[in-house]
Amino acid sequence: MEEKNIKQICSSFDENINHMEQLLPIEQSFDLIKREIEIGGKRATFYFIDGFMKDEAMLKLLDSLLSIQPTDMPSNVQEFVKKHISYAEVDVFQDFNQVLQNVLSGVVCLFIEGYDTCIGIDCRTYPARSVSEPEKDKALRGSRDGFVETIVFNTALMRRRIRDPHLIMEMKEVGASTQTDIAICYLSDRVDQALLKTIQERIASIQKTDLKMSQETLAEAMFKRKWFNPFPKYKFTERPDTAAACLLEGKVVILIDNSPSALILPTSILDMIEEANDYYFPTITGLYLKISRGIITFLTVFLTPVYLLFIQNPNWIPEMFEFTMIRDVINIPIILQLFILELCIDGLRLAALNTPSMLSTPLSVIAGLVLGEFAVQSGWFNSEVMLYMAFVAVANYTQPNFELGYALKFMRLLLLLLTAFFNWIGFLAGCILIFCFLAFNKTLSGRNYLNVKLN
User: Fold this and answer.
1) Confidence at residue 4, expressed as pLDDT on a 0 to 100 scale
2) What is the H or E stretch that residue 160 is in?
3) Which of 89, 95, 196, 268 has CA atoms 20 to 30 A from the CA of 105?
4) What's the pTM value of the predicted model, to 2 decimals?
5) Closest CA to 311 of 289, 336, 282, 290
6) Positive/negative CA dihedral, 374, 376, 381, 386
């Protein structure tokens, strides 16, 4: 908002209250509370939102202010705050834009007759669920807490782990309508200053009026991805120990209010596929888990395309692997079987998301029977195709990053399509395309997934 449109608070109490009545729909919104009292013989008015502060806190505040005598009322608002308001977080606002923004954020704003400023008392408390283990980022060993939707709780979880004065948490606001709180967290003595400056400038230049989809809207506004490259630009985590470890590595963590996950920058393909569980075990165990996940990730992309390639060229199959050949009658082309199963697996995944927990087990049994034994017996699918697609479906869940899992799926579909139409030439071209998708997937840091600087 331009400076000329900012109305300053004046010394006229009635004029200030009338302007607040114009700004806030007190009569229409039941949760916008206006409370008129008398403090030290002077008129005073509170503005706050019901639900953002506890009744006990409001009662204590009122008891303290109502006990003030007229002789104890100083002429200066700073002296009043110092003598009569015992809360830790108190601020003084000069204009109505600050007042409106803070009231809608849950801060109690107090106008007192004779003062040309407004007193903001931050005794708010946001509705929040308990700090519990995330459903997605399960911990085999280590802490069981996770981020919640309240940004102050999330910053506290990280402060608890990093007791270093170099830990900086800058608070920003994005969106004219939502005014969403965003915390940029970094260690000032370890962070890449050029990357930090880029992030700060990108956030400051965001022109969106709201963050409808929270962190996803912010991510798209900071760095718009190319629609044809499905690989994610950012890493997300719901575990504070992972976020703290990334901070100690010199990375930047962005927390968004109303979002239970942290956005981590910069990222590479190795960052995407690693998990915190890898570091909670002895070195050899953690190394084995990393190698296993890497191999399974590779097979997720290449297993079914390579199988299709050998089916199209049976003379390439070594004698020791001849048992992989399909002996049954093929009623539907292999490529169509693979694509139909890809769609069915996604359908089951979507169904699982929307199925009540008490029905998820029966649904899984029915789906396993229908898409397993009965699907093969009916002649729609061959058992070998079902086996390899079952491996791919299960292997996708070894991938900690949901977006990366779907990016790998799209690469697999691309390979299947090119192999089906152009045989080994298409397979080779698909491999080159996948490498290009990785090599030219530029992220916010100016580096790609292979950690090479791009101009």
Assistant:
1) 44
2) helix 151-161
3) 196
4) 0.81
5) 336
6) positive
